[in-house]
Design goal:
By secondary structure, the protein is of the alpha+beta class. It has a four-stranded mixed beta sheet with strand order 1-2-4-3, sandwiched between helices. Strands 5-6 form a two-stranded antiparallel sheet. Helix 5 crosses helix 9.
Length: 405
Amino acid sequence: MWELARSNKRKSIFLFAGMLLLLVGLGFFAGGAFDPQAGPFLGVTLAMFLWIIQLIISYFAGGSIMLALSGAKPVTRDMHPRLFNIVEEMKIAANLPVLPKIYVIPEEAPNAFATGRNPQKSAVAVTAGLLSRLNRDELQGVIAHEMSHVLNRDILFMTLVGVSLGSIVLLSNIFLRGMFHSGSSSRYRSRGKGGGQAALIFLAIAIVFAILSPIMAQLLYFAISRRREYLADATGVRLTRYPEGLASALEKMSRTDLVLSRVNKVTAALYIVNPLKRKGMQLADLTATHPPISERIKILRSLTYGVNFAAYQKAFESVRGRPASLIPKGGLSDAATVALRAPSKDTGPVEPVPAQRIAGDLIMAASGFTFVTCACGLKMKTPPDFRGNSLRCPKCGKVNSVNAA
């Protein structure tokens, strides 16, 4: 696992450096367009200042910002005991030091993501639609995939890469809007011949840079994201030993036309499947920020004899039909036998209620309601002004204690 994380870091650092070069280049030429003498230095300084400020904010609060942007709400064990149980199982399997914080997003579109700074400060968020559609094996596959992002140290790196992309887009917008609204181009034409020519050259290059750098940065961002999604699949099925669970979950998520309402191009790459898909988009077309889901499913369903990293690499090459580098050498030398397990007998949805009811539970929790889950499975809700210490289950008659907040 550590070799996989180190390999991730080594290979991604070059792409990350490419994004920083784009940011510096944009600052250099945009500054030169306004002042050919001192402008390039000031432009680079402004770009780096903007990047560092966003970097500091993201390092200390990136996870919280991501959760707030998605509308995720923290949940208690009493609200979703099965979800907590599955997260605990995967935390033990991944040997993480602490249990990630668990959030539910009140949206019907099935999806999930992990965020945070490191394994000690991480969080996993799933949508209400995911809980109402997936069975235990499928949800376990999704949680294992997200835990793998935590284990492979993807969560902080993707946040930092997203910040770099955001800085490039922001600087590009500032330059283009400033140029067209201030009428700076006419100012350049009125300058002396020597200075005016230099400014026009800077201006032409800066316009090209401002248009192309966000596109190039997004391509780098997506390249980093796609590789990490494959590696998270490989790590996740090693944790669950049941690749069909994740394959089936991906299949269900790709077949819905529901879309997340609170997502953008920067945050989209953090989700397990591309949340920006259009209505009517086919299974094989989901290639923007993520690998094709159909390809991921084929690879997972090719794992019929074991789920170690070498087996995933072999299946990856088999589905692609050509040799391709994915798993680092350390992972390929792993000779550990990781046999497949049998499917769970629990084939119903993890939360056998509509997504709207799960979203309603989140609103009630935010209003101070206490949730009590009886041993028979019935979930009871008590209002904030409830003063009793116990509650009798109307289904089985068992008396449950109520832990007042």
